[in-house]
Structures are given as C-alpha cells and as structure tokens.
Amino acid sequence: MQVFRSLDEIPAALGPTVAAIGNFDGVHRGHQAIIADVRARAAALQAASVAVTFDPHPVRLLRPEAAPRLITPLPERLDLLAATGLDATLVLPFTREFSQTPARDFAERVLARGLHAVEVHEGDSFRFGRGAEAGTPELVEFGKEMGFAVYGHRVLTVRGVPVSSSEVRRRIAAGEMGMARALLGRAFSVCSTQERGRGIGSRLLVPTINLAAYDELVPAHGVYVTRVRIGAGAAKRSFRAVTNCGVRPTFGVERFAIESYLLGWNPEADPVEITPETPVEVCFLQRLRDEQAFPSPEALKAQIMRDVAKAEHYHRLAERLG
C-alpha cells in the first residue's frame, strides 16, 4: 500500500480513485465493511482504492481536553489499512490552518482535484469542513457538481451493539476484551518496545517482559490472558502469556506498567534478542481478574501460578478450536 502524507505526493499515475474518508481509529469491523465496498467498487470501475485519514486526530487539536486515547496510533493504523488490501492511504496533517478549510474547498481540493475521486464513501456520522459544517447531504451536492458519487454507510451492528471507535474504546477501558474483539474483528493489542523493569520478575524467578511507556488506550487495570509478539518480519516470535496492567500494588509501585509473563519460556535455553528498538506487541485475549495487593511476594507468586494455569487452559482450548 502506498502512503501519501500530502496532496503533492499523489502521483498522476494513481489515476481515478474510489475513496473512503474517516479517522479509522481501530480499523474496526465498520471501517472494514466500508473499505471492502470501496475495494469492490474500485475494481469494478478500474480505479485505485484509497483511504483518507487525518493525523493527529482532529479532536486532539480542536478540543484537547476531550481527545480520546487512540485504539491504533498512526503506524498501527496504517499497517491495518494495508492489510485490508487498499491501494493507498492519504494521511492529511490536521493543523490549525487545515481545520479552517471550508467544506466546499475540502471537497474540491482533496477529493476532486487531489484524488480525482469518482466515488466517495463515508460513515453516516462523518462531518467535515470548518466547524464540522458539512456531512453526507452536503457532500452529495458537492459531488454532483464536481463529478463524484457519494455513498453514506449506515452503522454496522455486531451482537446488537453499534460498531464505533468510541464503543470499542469503552469496551477496552472496561476490560471487556471479548466484546472489543467482536467489534474490532481481532484482538486488541498494544505495540511498543521493551523497557527494563525493576527486577520484580527476576526476584520472583518469573521471566517477564515490560512494555515501554505507552500513552494511548490500554485496558482496565487487571490480569489478562495475552499473546506477546516480539520482533518483526521473519524474526518475529510469538508467545502465550499472562499480562498485568496496572501499578503492581504488592511492591508499592505507583507508575503504570504492562508486564507480561511468557508461558513456558526459558530465557537461558531459548534466548530472544531484544534491543531497545525491538517491537513488542501484546494482544489482549481475556481478562482473568482485577489487579490486587498481596501480603507477600510469595503470595503473589502463588497467584501468578494460578493465573498461568487458567491462561494455559485458555490457550489450549483456543488452539483446539482453531
């Protein structure tokens, strides 16, 4: 997938496009449904399929006090968009100046002249232009004048729940990983690098890996069944794991951390090279319990072993069911 970070980067060779517009935070099942339609229409019209998104999230600039923590920061969002089979994504820098663009100018400059769009697809709730002045009805009128058709997509419902980025965030923040997975179409994950811990895992003789500081969306404090992926490309390793999200109250730690115990991993017999730049992804599968303080490190270790047994059962069952 090609990635363009300004209109000037779009080559003439891209030709006519069928475009989807949105923030696409999470690239959830609703987004996936729109993109599937875009790809099908692009193939039928012999056009390129393109997503148009924004960075940073517009609310971070316009109302920073209300800005959501992201489900998928831009690098992960682009990876997920690429996995859908799109031909290209246009990432528009959302600056103060850009936020003052009138809706008509946006339609003409970005969609008609920049992308040579023949069709534009969006969610029914999408707003654009200075002060969010326009939505689907206005875009339909611009399209008639500028030569592109507009399709507004109704909200997808999964298990009776309307799929939206805000609903996905709410479920993740509540630790409802099963429902979050149903809405996303995959397990929620956090991607970062390793941070050297305080040696707690070593003192407990439990090999753990800690994620570096992460400022976007994380699940509710607690203990989770997870899968941890370390590295990239052909060198990527995948481990079944148990992960604690929280402040580790048994040891009086106040700083939030994501600490994972890799099941069945012996670092001496099976060393894994991890540098400060090595990507680490933690995929959250199921919540086991709340985070809690224990009277002693020994009591904590005993609970970790009980958590491990439950996690191993979960992984065995999941693998058996495919």
UniProtKB/TrEMBL annotation:
Pathway: Cofactor biosynthesis; FMN biosynthesis; FMN from riboflavin (ATP route): step 1/1; Cofactor biosynthesis; FAD biosynthesis; FAD from FMN: step 1/1. It comes from the Bacteria. The keyword Cytoplasm does not apply. It is an enzyme of class 2 (transferase). One of its GO terms (molecular function) is FMN adenylyltransferase activity. Catalyzes the phosphorylation of riboflavin to FMN followed by the adenylation of FMN to FAD. Belongs to the ribF family. This is Riboflavin biosynthesis protein. It comes from Acidobacterium capsulatum (strain ATCC 51196 / DSM 11244 / BCRC 80197 / JCM 7670 / NBRC 15755 / NCIMB 13165 / 161).
